[in-house]
Design a protein that fits this description.
Strand content: over 45%
Distance between the termini: 16 Å
Number of domains: 2
Number of helices: 1
Shape: elongated
Largest sheet: 7 strands, mixed
CATH class of the largest domain: Mainly Beta
Helix content: under 10%
Order of helices and strands: EEEHEEEEEEEEEEE
Length: 246
């Protein structure tokens, strides 16, 4: 199923909702099995299937702490204070030889470069001025304002620094903590023989995310997240996947 597939994950321990996807990019369900056979006089007399397995593949652009907890068993904590790295490009003012930062840098975190016109290719690094006025290879900073030498007016600049933040959500993926089993319910559409799209609800009573995951950052598209769940059978009913057509 592609497009607007609504998905909900529920805790197996208390049945409470753990995460809701208003729209997943793609959901794929794969069911495999082995073919067994019995021979008679060197020829196949009868065949049967065994060792049925199922997996669920989910592709999404939604990345949240709860999702990473479900997939990787990540541990979420809150930090009172911390720093976030900032990358800022622009052009030094052609009149005042100043450059305004978006945020006030945390102490000792600012690095300043002169760049080519693309704002990426570094030409030289500027250092913090020790005297009253910066030279051609220096800068001065007052809160968020950089002051540079007049010879640098109009030049392209790159500033890398950290800003201070509060109430930060930290998500740690640990080497010895793995995903727990969940129940998944999803709602999407399937096309019937008549050509009419019909709502279908798919319930997977027990599934656990594999340890592998792909997190992709693309310069042209939003970041994407792809991961796979292993489906387990219900110990009482042997049900693995339940479909209900509405």
């Amino acid at each position: 199923m592609n497009g607007a597939v609504k998905i909900a994950f529920y805790n197996k321990t208390d049945g409470k909702l753990a995460l809701y996807f208003p729209s997943a990019n793609r959901l794929g369900i794969s069911v495999t099995g082995e073919i067994k056979e019995a021979l008679a006089s060197g020829a196949t007399a009868v065949t049967w299937q065994a060792n049925r397995k199922a997996t669920v593949q989910l592709d999404t652009q939604l990345i949240s702490p709860r999702l990473l907890t479900i997939v990787l068993g990540a541990v979420e904590t809150n930090e009172t204070n911390g720093n976030f790295t900032q990358f800022q490009t622009g052009r030094i003012d052609s009149t005042t030889a100043t450059f305004e930062l978006d945020e006030t840098p945390a102490v000792g975190t600012l690095t300043v470069f002169l760049t080519e016109e693309d704002g990426k290719t570094i030409k030289s690094e500027l250092t913090l001025a020790s005297g009253a006025s910066p030279t051609a290879t220096e800068y001065k900073i007052t809160e968020k304002t950089l002051t540079l030498d007049a010879s640098n007016k109009g030049k392209a600049i790159l500033c890398i620094y950290a800003k201070e933040g509060t109430n930060i959500t930290k998500l740690a993926i640990k080497s010895d903590t793995y995903a727990s089993p969940y129940k998944m319910v999803c709602l999407g559409t399937v096309r019937q023989e008549s050509g009419v799209d019909k709502l279908v609800e798919i319930t997977i009573p027990t599934l656990t995310a594999q340890s592998n995951m792909d997190l992709t950052y693309d310069s042209e598209n939003p970041s994407s997240f792809s991961f796979t769940f292993d489906v387990a059978k219900d110990p009482v009913t042997n049900e693995m996947i339940i479909q209900r057509f509405l």
